[in-house]
Amino acid sequence: MADYDPSQPVTDLKERTYHLRGITKCDYDLVINPDLQSHIKRQWVEIDFVKYWQSPSSASQESFIPERPSCYTNFGSLGSSASGFQTSIYESNILSGSYNEGKAIIDFDWTKQRFTLQSSYQAQVGYDANVVFIPNATVYGTAKVCYENLFMRLSLYTVTEFEGKEETTISTRTFLPKYEWDPDMYNKYKNLYPRMSSLNNLEPGNGNSRIRPAALYIDEQHPEGVPMENYK
Predict the structure, then answer these.
(1) How far is 194 from 173, CA to CA, in rounded Å?
(2) pLDDT tens-digit map of 206-230
(3) For the segment 3-54, what is each residue's pLDDT rounded down to a tens digit?
């Protein structure tokens, strides 16, 4: 789902710009050493998406961006190497580095990913439509996720107790995720919104056991959509 963004001008053809609601859930497998389980008093996971940026002028220097293994090619039906949602980058989102040095790690905010409906589809949903169903929409560009230099950072926090003493440990790993529409939510909303093009209409699953819901979906507990940092 995506919501109308009033900060963006409406085109002469009355086309509106919409922004994603953000990721509300990620699917992952967590394995903890069984010898530690009895000592763990509390544990939780925090997930962030970060994008590495490097200016062309610093390309000749040692690479700042993690290298993606050439054997890894499955980024899900929404993963794209060439195009994706429009990205807006702000100075406040920089976690480390700087533009002056030509390198930065940027906090990737999914709610700032925008796209503009094409006039034919805008007419279908209405010129005052405040919400659109992304998989059925006809947009400028491609409603996919550009996975280049985009990583999922998972941090596991554990509070353990040994001999009456508590310790908090943080273990962080970085992953290359797959991107999918959530099958349950897709089936729930797909017939409520008009469908004009198959360009963005990548039905999840489709008998392919390799595809798992990983990102970009809302759930029944959070139908309004919640940014990742607020999801519990």
Answers:
(1) 40
(2) 443 333 223 333 444 544 444 333 3
(3) 899 988 999 999 999 988 777 678 888 888 888 888 999 999 988 888 887 7
Closest CA to 139 of 127, 122, 126: 122
Which alpha helices (DSSP H) does the chain contain, by range? 34-37, 119-125, 183-189
Edge to edge, the sheet with strand 165-175 lists 94-98, 103-107, 40-54, 150-162, 165-175
For 117-141, the pLDDT digits (tens) are: 999 899 988 899 998 888 888 888 7
CB 205 within 8 Å of CB 183: yes
Position 156, amino acid = L
Instruction: Kindly list the distances between the CA atom of residue 209 and the CA atoms of 76, 203, 212, 217, in Å, as whole numbers in the listed order.
Output: 11, 13, 7, 19
Place of tokens 């925090």: 46
Q: How far apart are CA 110 and CA 19, in angstroms?
A: 8
Q: What are phi and psi of 106, to 5 degrees?
A: -110, 135
Is a pLDDT exceeding 60 seen at residue 146? Answer: yes
DSSP β-ladder status, 2-4 and 103-107 = unpaired
Q: Look at residue 229 in the predicted model and tell me its pLDDT.
A: 37
Q: Which residues pair with 207 in a beta bridge?
A: none
- At residue 98, the 3 state secondary structure works out as strand
